[in-house]
Design brief:
single chain; 473 residues; Preprotein translocase SecY subunit; 2 domains; 3-stranded antiparallel sheet; 62% helix; globular
Length: 473
């Protein structure tokens, strides 16, 4: 019976749609075209509104949307969430030896990718349907007057769910296309593109701000000039703070990304030839601050859900400027206070919020950093085994993984803690000063763009257009 089930399962995997890999090495221009095409389609998806959605709907949980490359109210309301969830689940199942696949073999890699795709499809269907029918996306069909022609509430919700599922499938196909034909994973580039779009809109949007008493534009640049023209230089200086904070966070993130500790290594069989094994200062990347931010966003989401059910266990929410804002409870204090409010009208509650939010971010970033080096295979023992298996050793020491492990421990744990604290501090400062794209989003974008730069740098400079070649230099 088990063999029949396994055979049926393998048959199902064979029928999954797949984008063929290129049969020869792609040049720079081809990869650039496919990458640009994928990002362009992502932007189109993010701008297509959901038909049948209530016109009074207001986007919530912006931090979570940044992490998921989502644009709430569009075809990609859940963004890469279902795809990432499917990937995490299969990794957990493999880690627990429930699913056993030899990913070192070509056939094993193909099977792993097929199962990962099957899980992603399942979660795209499941999460989008649950999200719609839970009421998180209110339908326009609240009564017979607002219903689209021939619809009731159930069919209205079904229409919204179908649109989201189609958007999720397109996003999954784009990720595979860009991974095989572009420079790097589409999921990473979607996050960076989403953050870049948010920053650009926040700075230069010409749309009128409905909450502005002077009729200013949404774009911060227009708002600054408007305040100067109307004779409010102090307010213009306050409005300039988020712009300066955004630029400063980008600069500091790029600088920290470039700091590395390099361990000199030599090849045992090749005398006089060696390499340097780099250990980044931000050793665990942005993973810890992403997990902490996702946890805080989940607390906010759970708080809204409980409050709507009549059980304000985490706090009570009120609608302020179109956003559901916590006015009491734990969730009120686990969000960054605004620097403007702290300067104009300081009070003790803002201090409590500042201390609570900072403690959550910094302690959480360190804890998740320490946990991640073990879960992600970045601990000293695993790295030492990788170095030894590559035929490398540290000059002046025996080729023994235990010796290499002991030396690596001097660096890895301090880098883990200092790197986690650093990204936590950057995220806190960015959020307090109102940096556009959020601190976590900016950190992610810097990391992704740096990896894109490294992927592009691997190509022959003569394949690049002249402008790109100069930039890479």
């Amino acid at each position: 019976m088990n063999k029949k089930i396994e055979s049926a399962f393998n048959t199902l995997l064979d029928y999954l749609p797949e984008i063929n890999s290129p049969k020869k090495k792609l040049d720079f221009k081809t990869k650039f075209v496919w990458t640009a095409l994928g990002i362009s389609i992502y932007f189109v998806l993010s701008m297509v509104p959901l038909y049948g959605l209530s016109p009074t709907f207001k986007s919530q949980f912006e931090t979570l949307a940044v992490l998921l490359a989502a644009n709430t109210g569009s075809l990609i309301t859940l963004g890469i969430g279902p795809i990432v969830t499917g990937s995490i689940i299969i990794q957990l199942l493999m880690g627990a030896d429930i699913i056993k696949i030899d990913t070192n073999s070509r056939e094993g890699k193909r099977k792993y990718q097929s199962i990962q795709k099957l899980f992603s499809i399942a979660f795209i269907l499941f999460e989008n349907i649950i999200y719609v029918y839970s009421g998180a996306l209110p339908a326009a069909c609240v009564d017979s007057l607002n219903c689209p022609a021939g619809m009731n509430l159930f069919t209205n919700n079904m229409l919204i769910a179908v649109q989201l599922i189609i958007g999720g499938f397109i996003l999954m196909a784009l990720d595979e296309l860009m991974s095989k034909w572009g420079f790097m994973s589409g999921i990473s580039l979607f996050i960076a593109a989403g953050v870049a779009r948010r920053i650009f809109i926040s700075l230069f949007s010409p749309r009128a701000d409905p909450y502005s008493a002077f009729g200013f534009k949404v774009g911060q640049v227009f708002k600054i000039f408007g305040l100067i023209q109307t004779g409010y230089p102090a307010d213009a200086a306050m409005a300039l703070i988020p712009v300066v904070a955004t630029i400063a966070v980008f600069a500091v993130s790029i600088y920290l990304q470039s700091i590395k500790v390099e361990i000199p290594l030599s090849f045992g069989r090749v005398r006089g030839f060696g390499i340097r094994w780099p250990l980044s200062f931000i050793y665990t990347s942005n993973i810890p601050v992403i997990l902490v931010s996702a946890f805080i966003a989940s607390l906010q989401f759970a708080g809204v859900m409980f409050d709507n059910m009549g059980f304000p266990l985490l706090g009570h929410f009120e609608t302020i400027n179109g956003q559901q804002t916590a006015v009491s409870g734990l969730v009120k204090y686990v969000r960054a206070p605004n620097i403007r409010d702290m300067i104009v009208a300081p009070n003790m509650e803002q201090l409590y919020s500042l201390l609570t939010y900072t403690a959550f971010m910094l302690i959480g970033a360190v804890i998740f950093s320490v946990l991640w080096i073990n879960v992600g295979g970045q601990d000293a023992k695993t790295v030492a085994e990788q170095i030894t298996s590559s035929g490398l050793f540290i000059p002046g020491f025996r080729s023994d993984p235990r010796i290499i492990e002991r030396i690596l421990k001097r660096y890895i744990m301090p880098l883990t803690i200092m790197g986690g604290l650093s990204v936590g501090i950057i995220a806190v400062i960015a959020d307090i000063f109102g940096a556009f794209g959020h601190g976590t989003g900016i950190l992610l974008t810097v990391m992704i763009v740096y990896k894109l730069y490294e992927a592009m740098k691997q190509h022959d400079p003569m394949e690049m257009p002249e402008a790109v070649r100069k930039f890479m230099r």
